[in-house]
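User: I'll paste a sequence; please echo it back and then give the predicted structure.

Assistant: Echoing your sequence first, then the prediction.
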Amino acid sequence: MPLDTSIAARLKRTPDGLVCAVVQQHDTREVLMVAWMNDDALHETLTTGRAVYWSRSRQQLWRKGDTSGHAQTVVRASLDCDGDAILLEVDQVGAACHTGERTCFLTGGDLGAVNGLEASDG
């Protein structure tokens, strides 16, 4: 079954038909990862309640947790105002990152941005 046409019409996809998905733990608001979805992945996510993405490296659907057991149960899915990003609020089981970390933003590390809150205190 295809993605609902009323949803599909609102999406602004990349030239290869993908939309960015930002994945957040629903109760703590912790950003877990960023992934990509095509229409099939979004349709399956919305109709099964399980997070499904498009693997750009393998060129196939990727059901989060199929091999690792670290599945994501979808609590809410929202589209941003421009239609070019989806926010998936999930209940994450185990690590979200393929490195084994809770989030994908730990291994990459801090980039050393100026803390604007501290800078404006002076």
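The beta strands are 19-25, 31-37, 52-55, 60-63, 72-79, 85-92. Residues 78 and 87 are 5 Å apart (CA to CA).
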